[in-house]
Amino acid sequence: MSTTEQRVAVVTGGARGIGAATAVRLAAEGRAVAVIDLDEAACKDTVEKITAAGGKAVAVGADVSDEAQVEAAVARIVAELGAPTILVNNAGVLRDNLLFKMSVSDWDTVLNVHLRGSFLMTKAVQKHMVDAGFGRVVNLSSSSALGNRGQANYSAAKAGLQGFTKTLAIELGKFGITANAVAPGFIATEMTKATADRVGMGFEDFKKAAAGAIPVQRVGEPEDIANAIAFFTGEAAGFVSGQVLYVAGGPLD
Ligand code: NAP
């Protein structure tokens, strides 16, 4: 790649929340960005934000847990933007419940979107990274990987993504590809708002209660996570691989 050529980044779940902030941030870093989400039309706001700022982006509708849709999405990205060499596996869902009430389908949905989705996307994109001799993969883990009541499915998926990340780093390092995981704590998005709704709390009260238990005394914003992802996907981060960075306003154990 010449130094003037623009790298192509793919952000899944980019219609809103952390994915949208990440797509906007990577575009500001000079990347052309493919914004993938279940509903292509829902990516419009993110794409418009990027193009209004002079950046380049396309909206792509795909379910990351569906192999054929992933293959078609990556083929479209190659045709419309060029071969992708940056991948942020961010798409995610919650299906919280205590173990004894958790349905098999809620287990499968969460494992399929987070783990199978990240596997399928990475498998489809890595060949372009290998060809380019350069790649950056960032997987979204979570503080819940350490265990969280009501999230047997989600914590298993997020812990699984940490093992997946480390294995990618080991297998793909020799091709100039790094893989890292960002594990957010509480970030104010539709996802945490849905949790507030589920436990019957107003979102402002829910955020205030969460902030009280965080050393920096505030909840995170999507841009806090986008900032960490920008670091890991940067040209200069080629010696940082296989790491899990908790971005949670304080230490976690
Ligand atoms: P969000 O606001 O719920 O956004 C997630 C996006 O992913 C939505 O636009 C959603 O589309 C999309 N999506 C869901 N399933 C998909 C699929 N199968 N294929 C393609 N797109 C799909 O969530 P967020 O809070 O920004 O979270 C982003 C990531 O960070 C997730 O992996 C999450 O687990 C992780 N995380 C978040 C927090 C937090 O506090 N918010 C903390 C730790 C980790 P629909 O709207 O159509 O469902």
TrEMBL record:
GO process annotations (BP): monocarboxylic acid metabolic process
Pfam families hit by this protein: adh_short_C2
GO molecular function, one term: 3-oxoacyl-[acyl-carrier-protein] reductase (NADPH) activity
Source taxon at top rank: Bacteria
PROSITE patterns recorded: ADH_SHORT
EC number: 1.1.1.100
EC top class, as a word: oxidoreductase
Keywords from the UniProt entry: NADP, Oxidoreductase
Domain Ketoreductase: start-end pairs: 7-185
Family that this chain belongs to: Belongs to the short-chain dehydrogenases/reductases (SDR) family.
Name of the protein in its database record: 3-oxoacyl-[acyl-carrier protein] reductase
Organism: Streptomyces murinus
